[in-house]
Amino acid sequence: MAPADSFGRDSGVAVVLLPTLLAREAGGQGRFEVDARTLREALGSLPVRDLCLDEHGELRRLVNVFVDREDVRGGEGLDTSLTDESEVRIVTAIAGG
Fold it and tell me: Would you give the DSSP letter of residue 4?
C-alpha cells in the first residue's frame, strides 16, 4: 500500500470534496478519494454524479468545480487532467428569487 500524504490520503488518488448539500445526498460523505485521470472520470465515479452532470454529461449550470483552486470553466472543463495530488472542490450555487 502506498504511503499517505499530508492530507491523509493514499498516494495515487485525487480527492473530491463535496459541499454539505451534496454530501447529504451522498449518504453524509463529503470527501471521496478517486482514481481518475480527468475531472470527467472523477465526477462520473461519484454517487452524486447525476446532481453534478446533466443528461449530456456536462456540468450543470449551477455547479462550479475547482481543481487545485482553479475554476475548470475557464480552462479545459471536464477534460481537466488530474494528478495524484489534485484536490477537486465542488461548489453549488444557490438560485432563487
Answer: B
- Regarding beta strands 14-17 and 87-92, do their DSSP bridges make them parallel or antiparallel, or are they unpaired? parallel
User: What are the CB-based long-range contacts (under 8 Å, 24+) for 42-49?
Assistant: 42/14, 42/16, 42/82, 42/88, 43/16, 43/78, 43/88, 46/16, 46/18, 48/18, 48/22
Could you give the CA distance from residue 51 to residue 72 in angstroms, rounded to a whole number?
A: 17
pLDDT tens by residue, 64-94: 999 999 999 999 999 999 999 999 999 988 7
Q: How far apart are CA 71 and CA 52, in angstroms?
A: 15
Contact assessment for residue 42 and residue 88, using Cβ atoms and an 8 Å cutoff: yes
Which segments within the chain are labelled E, that is strand?
Answer: 14-17, 31-34, 63-67, 70-71, 87-92
| Angle CA 9–34–11, to nearest 5 | 35
